[in-house]
């Protein structure tokens, strides 16, 4: 039996190329975790055996409670000072050296590490849309040395599981095409996907992202459950 009050939250990452469905599935997983989470019953707390109680939580309390169960995060986090520099680069309003951009993406993770650690330790599960694998795949796709790319992320918290949403970039293009951001180009995405697949380790679950949204969602929560990541 698991106990939300003593157990740390799970660190779940979604990775993949653009338009593979990461954001959709990450949001659906968070919603699933929040809905399926059961409040400890009053009885189990040793109160009023045999009596009935009504749940009179206000909407605001329910929201706070949901955020305590699971939260959705995303990298790059474009809201920080570093994130704003990254955003300008991706939107082509600012040019930066490839090495500098790589280090900014990495620093954007580092600046969140204390917060992430504390949230996990408080028992909240984090579902994170992109992480250090994206950092390596997209920078190495520009022919930066792969070991140099990996080095700035050494020491970051390791995810419990990585769902890699695998989709051929040719298929991704058919999904309404890419936007206008710097990396949203077919040849570049193909290069990044190859590098992603070389980064696969034992924490990875590679999903065929051509499946429907409900099919993928089911595979994802079942896999999370099998891996004991759901409280
Ligand atoms: N990206 C994302 C990187 O190049 N390095 C990183 O470390 C991360 C987290 O940023 F093309 C790339 C991947 C993508 C772009 O990401 C913006 P979103 O998920 O589309 O916002
Ligand atoms: Mg994008």
What is the CATH architecture annotation? 3-Layer(aba) Sandwich
Largest pleated sheet: 5 strands, parallel
Mean pLDDT equals 91
The N- to C-terminal Cα distance equals: 9 Å
Ions, cofactors and other bound molecules? 3'-fluoro-3'-deoxythymidine monophosphate, magnesium ion
The gyration radius over C-alpha positions equals 20 Å
The fourth-level CATH homologous superfamily is P-loop containing nucleotide triphosphate hydrolases
Q: Number of helical runs?
A: 10
Number of DSSP strands? Answer: 5
Shape: globular
CATH C-level label: Alpha Beta
GO molecular function: ATP binding; dTMP kinase activity; nucleoside diphosphate kinase activity
Organism: Ambispora gerdemannii
Domain Thymidylate kinase-like: 69-220
Protein name: dTMP kinase
Could you characterize the architecture of this molecule?
By secondary structure, the protein is an alpha/beta fold. It has one domain (11-38, 54-226): Rossmann fold. Helix content is 46%, strand content 12%. It has 10 helices and 5 strands; from the N terminus they run E-H-H-E-H-H-H-E-H-H-E-H-H-E-H. It has a 5-stranded parallel beta sheet, with helices on both faces. Helix 1 (22-36) crosses helix 10, helix 3 runs antiparallel to helix 4 and helix 4 (98-110) packs antiparallel against helix 6 (132-140). Residues 48-54 have low confidence and may be disordered. The structure holds 3'-fluoro-3'-deoxythymidine monophosphate (FDM) and magnesium ion. 3'-fluoro-3'-deoxythymidine monophosphate binds next to helix 6. Belongs to the thymidylate kinase family.
């Amino acid at each position: 039996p698991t106990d939300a009050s003593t157990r740390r939250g799970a660190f779940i990452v979604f990775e993949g190329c653009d338009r593979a469905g990461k954001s959709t599935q990450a949001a659906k997983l968070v919603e699933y975790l929040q809905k399926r989470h059961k409040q400890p019953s009053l009885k189990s707390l040793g109160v009023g055996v045999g009596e009935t109680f009504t749940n009179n939580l206000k909407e605001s309390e329910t929201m706070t409670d949901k955020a305590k169960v699971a939260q959705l995060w995303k990298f790059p986090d474009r809201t920080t000072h570093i994130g704003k520099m990254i955003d300008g680069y991706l939107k082509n309003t600012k040019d930066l050296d490839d090495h500098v951009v790589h280090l900014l993406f990495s620093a954007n993770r580092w600046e969140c590490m204390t917060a992430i650690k504390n949230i996990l330790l408080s028992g909240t599960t984090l579902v994170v849309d992109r992480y250090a694998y994206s950092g390596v795949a997209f920078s190495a796709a520009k022919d930066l040395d792969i070991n140099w790319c990996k080095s700035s992320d050494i020491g970051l918290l390791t995810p419990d599981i990585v769902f890699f949403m695998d989709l051929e970039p040719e298929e991704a293009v058919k999904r309404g095409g890419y936007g206008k951001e710097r990396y949203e180009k077919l040849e570049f995405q193909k290069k990044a996907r190859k590098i992603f697949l070389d980064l696969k380790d034992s924490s990875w679950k590679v999903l065929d992202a051509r499946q429907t949204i409900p099919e993928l969602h089911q595979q994802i929560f079942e896999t999370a459950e099998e891996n004991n990541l759901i409280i």
